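Sync notes, pocket subgroup
Present: LS, DG
LS reminded everyone that the earlier model was apo-only. Rerun requested with phosphoenolpyruvate included. Inputs:
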Amino acid sequence: MLKGIAASSGIAIGKAYVIREEENAINRYEVKDTEKEIKRFLEAILKAKEEIESIKETAVKNFGEEKALIFEAHLMILEDEEFKASVIEKIKQNINAEYAVKETVEMFEGIFLSMEDEYMRERAADIRDIGGRIIRALKGEEKSSIGDIKDKCIIVAKDLTPSDTAQLNREYVLGFITELGGKTSHSAIIARALEIPAVSGIKGATEILKTGDLIILDGVKGIIYINPDESLIDEYQNKIQREMEEKRELLIYKDRKVLTKDGKRIEVAANISSKEEVDVALKYGADGIGLFRTEFLFMNRETAPTEEEQFEVYKYVLEKMEGRPVIIRTLDVGGDKKIPYIDVGTEMNPFLGLRAIRLCFERLDLFKTQLKALLRASIYGNLKIMFPMISKVDEIKRAKEILEDVKAELKKAGQKFSDKIEIGIMIEVPSAAIISDLLAKEVDFFSIGTNDLIQYTLAVDRMNEKVSNIYEPSHPAVLRLIKMVIDNAHKEGKWVGMCGEMASDISMIPLLIDYGIDELSMSAPSVLKVKKEILKSVD
Ligand SMILES: C=C(OP(=O)(O)O)C(=O)O
Ligand SMILES: [Mg+2]
């Protein structure tokens, strides 16, 4: 038995599938026969071309000509004489082909990244992609994608990025075990939304476990059993049965409106990160969407979604929610949510770096495109726009000014948008909580992001399993800030929600209600148990 962190509740029993770290190191060595090495390089180019041609064909079939254009760009790079000449030049200096490609790719990447033109800057990602493909061809490796898993298994990996997790297919992935990551890492959050049980923080898991080992994964207790005996399997199979029954019983709360014993209405909403999750939110009786993490729309693709693509997603969510509140948060890239084509450079402390609204101010092109899409979609439902990582008054003022500029542009173009959109901010940085009296004057609502608020207040990395024991939601410093935020908002007549993971922590709910919280938003599968908990004092 191994103990880790209970990252996503639920139980899974199945065979392990161990993903070992890819051998990324590209070593430099001296080649004597440079002619042979050049031939090896040119063959790798041909192999890469064949691969891309075939991917392009599939892309045309599945997504149409336009989506396949990106591969046209990749083919052009492979045919680029300057690129090839640069690699060959290096090989002639007795450098091995892999290293020559790596150096050439880095040089071209640098050139593209320094260009003024947005389109050209984005081409840096293409060069990187192509470079990886040629190097894999040279090494004779195939690229495997986690989204391609087609056998029922429990994934064991050192770490899963949020974009990896978002690709997991629930039909096959029964659960996952990682060495790294905490309870509020985005991978854990996504796993909870997908109802995939997970345990993180199991040191050495990829070494200890072998593919094919039978595993019991207990995501409630945060433990795993390796090759358990029959009696333990029986015991856990019974637990799975009981869990399913409990879930069914909770359905009686689905259409209940939640009132406290003082008769105050509490909205119990769902957090989503894709349009597909709206159905899950409705299935579990969410009163609204309390947080749409839109950065996930930007993941696992080559370029940012266009205004039209985003508009379609927002419209879909708003229409599906049929007038219930839908809080859509603007792009929160950075920290553990990395997007290859949105370059923030190398950062010593990504969670303290160019993240969320800070990045949007640097990349007005992305920010304005998203705001336009949101405004246009606003006529299809009850949209509220929320800005992440606000840490001072100037930032919310600036964000609102940009929103006004975008509104003016739309008006000029004769495009319609609602005039009733509430504007809110995340309170997830201690400075924002401390000046919440001032910020409350600028907005219609707050939503407390406890995942970040806790990590920044207590100086405890939410991703680091080594300090997870001191990541303490009930620390008095955190509780004082939460109370202060709610009081300050209410003094200005504004409402306060909570969309961090604390919102579904049953042990904290009585206190939050006592503080006067107005809305709680969480992964959809937690909605019913939270409704039940609040109604317990009334029923
Ligand atoms: C809801 C939050 O935002 P995210 O988890 O996306 O950082 C939070 O910080 O609590
Ligand atoms: Mg946050």
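DG: The chain has a mean pLDDT of 92.
LS: The radius of gyration is 25 Å.
Action: DG to write up.
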